[in-house]
Amino acid sequence: MRSKLFLSLFFSLLAGCATFKELQPKPELSPAERGYIELRNDKEDFQLDQGKQYFIRFPRPLHDNFDIVLTTNAKWYMDTYLTRTFDDGKGPIVRIQDEASREDSSSVYAVDLSSGTYFWVIDTVRQDIGLHLQYRYVPRWRHRFENEYAGFKQTLSGSLVDRSTYSSSPGAIPIESVDFAERLGYVGSRTSKLNAMNEQLKKLADLFPPDIAAANDTAYRNFKTLRAAVEDEIQFQQNYAAALSIFQKEKNAGNNTGSFLSDALAYAEFLRQHDRYPALMVEKARKTIMLRLNDAVPYYEQQLRNKKDVKPIVLDPPLEPVQQLYAASGRGIPPAFEALRTFVERFNLEASALQAATVRLKELHALVDKTISPPAASFYAGIEASARDIRAGIPPPQAASSERYRGLDAASLLALELARAAEQADDFQALFGSGSQIAADITARSWWTAESKTRDLYVGKDGRTFASVERHREKLVRWFESDIFNGVRNATRERLDAFVKLHESTYTDVPRLYADSAFQPAYNLSFSAAGQGVLAQKKGQIDEYINKVRHFQFPEAAIRVIYADFTRDMSAPDGVDRARAVVEHGKEYKGNDKQLTAIVSECDPAAAKWIVHPKEYRRLLALPVTSNRKGSNDYMFRIRLQIPSDAQFPVFDVNIKLPRELAEGAGREQWYDLITINNTPIKNEGRFRITSPTSDNGYESQITPVQMDKEGRNILEVRFKKSSYRVYEISAMAQVPIMKKN
Amino acid sequence: MKNKRLVSILGGVGLVVIGVVLYLIFHRPDLSESIVLPFIAHQKPAIDPHLPGPTPLSDKLDEVQFDGLFDLSANPSGIVYQDGLGELVGVDQDNVVTVRLKPNKRWSDSYQITVKDDKYTIAKSRDHFFSAVDLQFTIRRIMTLGSLSPDYILLIQAMESPGFEGPDDRGEIRFRFRQNRIWKEADIKESLSFKILPEGSPMNALNYTVGTAAYMPLPPKEGVSNYFRTPDGGAAIPDLILAPFIDNSTYTTELRNGAINVLLESPFGALSPVLTDSRKFFTKSNISTTMFAVLFNTGRLSRDQRTQLRRLLDSRLIADRFFNVGTPQQRHIQDYKGNRDNYADYVNHSVFPTSSYYIEEKIVEPAPARDNAPADLSLLPDTVRIKACTNFGFREEYSELADILNDPAVTRGKVKVTIVGNEEIQRGNYDAVVVAFTGYRSNFLFDLYDIFLRQPDLVTYRINLEVSDDARGAQTVSPGSFRRENNFFGLDAGADSPDKADVNQFLQYVYGFMSTRNIGDKQEYSRRIDQLEHGLSLGAWLFSVPSLAYFSTQFDSTSISLYGVASQLSTIKQWRETPDR
Question: I need a surface site. Which of A183, A370, A415, B439 has the fewest CB within 10 A?
Fold first, then answer.
């Protein structure tokens, strides 16, 4: 019980703390359309305290497009607004515009059904007042129309124009005698007022409820009557102004046929709408216009005679409005005008076509001209197609055949230009048709066919000169030469590069690799428009690449790959073959890579291995020089002594450390067949001494004394036989000998 | 009747023939298990392992009798070194060479040999083992001999101070080798291949008989020992017999007849027409070791005369005549390279033979290129008297040469060659003398002492080298090395003559050449010697003769390796008889 009491007190306190106080009229407010109703608080006005804030809930109207009209004597003491939502002044508040804000005693708010309740908020009370307020729910159209009706009627009456001249009433001023400018200004100002009023009426009409027509509403009836009168006057004034304007134009044209004809469209329109105007006035206008039209054809033909170019004829004014004027006049088009129109139409068709063709031919020229490097194959086909299209678009020169106008300069010139354009298009088509074929041959790598056709193009086979596109022919020949050359070169390169990639690790029959057709040009070029010198130069470029691959790239790559395989296991069954492959590649190699040269030398038993430092062992390989894979082979290695020495006659011991496999039988049988120095055999029976390799001396044989010719080649060659087919690693060292007794 | 007489005669002849055949068969010497070498009876071998011998055989026998620490041998692939009195342990980074001595090696005097009815009995005597003191003695002797001994050069080029440390308790000794090279096994063993004499041997003896090698000398007969393999020597063939002959003219016949089975040098160095049966004989060719020269007596002939005489003696012409080139009697030759009848290769144009290192490698330019002018005979004496002695080997060759030089077609009547006894030579009673130089080496160690310092005495081999210490204590050659009477050329460094300066210079060069351990010096000296000799015109260096050895097929040819400058008998221990004979 206590808690309930507490809560009641709490909420009462809270209520007492609200900012805006709601005024709740009694009786409750009604949205019905009933005229003004006083807003009362139990038969009294609400008392508003200065500085306090209030609001009153207004129900929504019964229909859309209603106004809530509030009248009060206290408007000056309050700041008020109507809003759709209200929460004690919190949150955003969207005020509905007070359409009578400038009035001291009333406010008008447009309301509709979209809100259930409207809140009239008294935001400020400047002094304590009693709120005497009337409210009214009223359809908006009615509220507005009722307020504007008198003004509408006054505007209409003030805007009426006399209709006697327009109607050719007896005694009225004939229209052709009217001061057109003054009269048009007079009529125009009134028409403007009426149009403005009519716009207001149209807006009011939009506010009508659907069932208004059925209701016997006085205001509605007044509205309809007023609007019909307004629209009738507007129509009249517009027709009158149009007629005035026609006669004014004709008068203003004076003797200037061009000026007259320039308004042909207006005249035609006037005559076409003859039903809008009084018949007498229409007939008067027709006669005047037709009389002036007799000057039209001569006027235009003078323009044709003055024309000296092949651009489309642009007559001033254009023929079309005049033609329409003829039609509107109901008299038909005269033959002379028809002949003129037909000629102009044909001329312009041809001229336009010529212009288009010329533009496109120029574009083709420009396209070819700006293309400075050999284009893709589609380029030729594209230009051929364009040329064909251009040619199809060039009409036969019929304009020049016109009986009436054949003597015109423009017509003759046009015929000539059309013929030229046609020839160019034909030449383009033929040239680039051939080009397209050659390009296709090049794409298909049919080098002989492509080159033959290029040669034909150059020498002008079948008598075709391509005179109109001569410079393009020369260019195409150059391009195709270039394309064929590049194609052959690239094909050669691709084939060669692929060959190299495929065979860089091949170590059998290496000479055959170098004899492969891959080392020939993909096609042997035989033509150049620039002469044999250039042809030779191009062939030289291809050969240069081939030679580059043959003598540099291929042997370089192959030597590295094969040598890497070789060194992984020199004693492998194919070690000899790999070493020989390296040597064969080395025969082709012409580079100066010292590492490669050293590799080749290392693998080549015929290449003497340099010994340039005394007392330093160097490795060398003994390889078979015969190829008996399952039996005995002859082996060889060579050493070249080139040791810097101050001595005039340097002399050395050469110590050769042999693998055990080679030397272990040396005690039973001479391990070598022949040892020579500069091709002179060295024999133990002579003054030389060759020690036998034994296990005691680590299988090292000493050959001494070996004289070194400081200026010459000092080649020590050792040959031996071994029942094997493999590579042996040997070490050799040279040093100054000692003198030996034995 | 007549028929009976004829039958009787024929029968008698037949019996005689059969008798002769039977005599030859049953009296043919049995040379099995023997190596029989011929020698000139009055040129007895003198064995000194450290000095060049007076005869070719002398040097060869060094190998038979003595061991070095390491011994030169050979196999089919070339030279090998076998352990002799040492075993190579190793060489360290400081080039200290360690050799383990073989203390169990006995000197040959550990055996007592008795002779009874030409049969030898070998019995054990007091053991005389090899030791380091023997090595020490040997090194000391070699150093004393100096440049007279090739071993001296080997030692001083290997070691700053030849000698060794040790032995330690493992019997190892250490040699400190020079730091100037990588000492390979072959170089070390070569340097230590000098033959070792037992300590206590005389420093100078005519013959050294006690060795450790495969063969030991038997008691001499008529001053010459045969050899028998030592019990622990390891030789395959027990006997090495030296067979005396008057001269070399019958050598080939003796070989054919089976009186000898090895002929180390064929007469004229030529293939013998009587030894063509390859089933019975095989040959081994070798580099030349013998050359013939005409040495000019500077006491008799002036320099101009010597120059003209040299021009007169056309070596090529004389060589062709010597080998009867182009005649039915042509002496065919074959060298170790397989070349045949390449006579021009043997013609010499310098004191250095054409086959020698110095000519072959063009260290010395051959003479003909600088002197091919015709001889001015007016400068020569009416007769140039040349002497030759045929009693000390090469009888046939000397006689042939005498005939050739006496032929006016060769010497234009200006030369008279006379065969004389050794006394004439000793007295220097000649304008020039024909001399055969044997056993020369074609390697760096070509022996100029043998040519220029040799006593002109074919009986006694003597090299007249006198050295003294200069102010800095360095050894230098004394002018006394050249005295008129102590060399074939009559060179006298002390005599006043226009050639005196050149002669002294020449002596210096010869000594320098022979005593240096530096190859570059050797080369330079060789050029200077050649040039100065050419200027002095000391001789006409006619030609060399091929070295061709014949062997009976009693021996297995594959067991015999005769390699170049290596002594022909260095592999004798390996020689074997052909098994199926």
Answer: A370
